[in-house]
Amino acid sequence: MSDESVDTDRPTSHFAWSNMFVTPEDDPRSEGGFDDELSVLVNYLRDQRLTLELKCAGLDAEQLARRSVPPSPMSLLGLVRHMAEVERGWFRRTMAGEDAPRIWRHEADRDADFHGAVGDPAVVEEAWAAWREEVAYAERFVASALNLDVKGRHGDGEISLRELLVHMIEEYARHNGHADLLRELIDGRVGQ
Prior knowledge:
The chain is mostly helical. Helices cover 52% and strands 4% of the residues.
């Protein structure tokens, strides 16, 4: 690669504690050591949710809404909105059987959670409020469930709470990988 092809508008990333999200002693995420299946699932999901928050910390509305690589509409703000929709769909509609309409996504634009993620502080506030509300609902649902074998209707079949929690960990882990790259593109900070 020649020096002429280097994008000088992008931040330079260097591994050092100074550009990590948090130092190890300040990291709010757990270090494992859970004794039972429910604790493992709940706490790993909690850590993935915290990771999304960490990836977005300290950014303004414009930075949160900054798109990744054209033509992708993906942004950190879009990921927050998307995960609010995911939480709502799985816990309210699938597990609880509620008639909970989508927040942003609709048939005419299945990516409205990403397309509507614009650099407006009110949009950012709305996204975080929706995400936190859906996470709180999910946490209450799990805490009140009789066991991990509780079933919800999914398509033509069923899904257990156990499988859903594993799926949610996977969903966050996948999108937190995207968030790592998005954040590094914004300010060079790298994730743990």
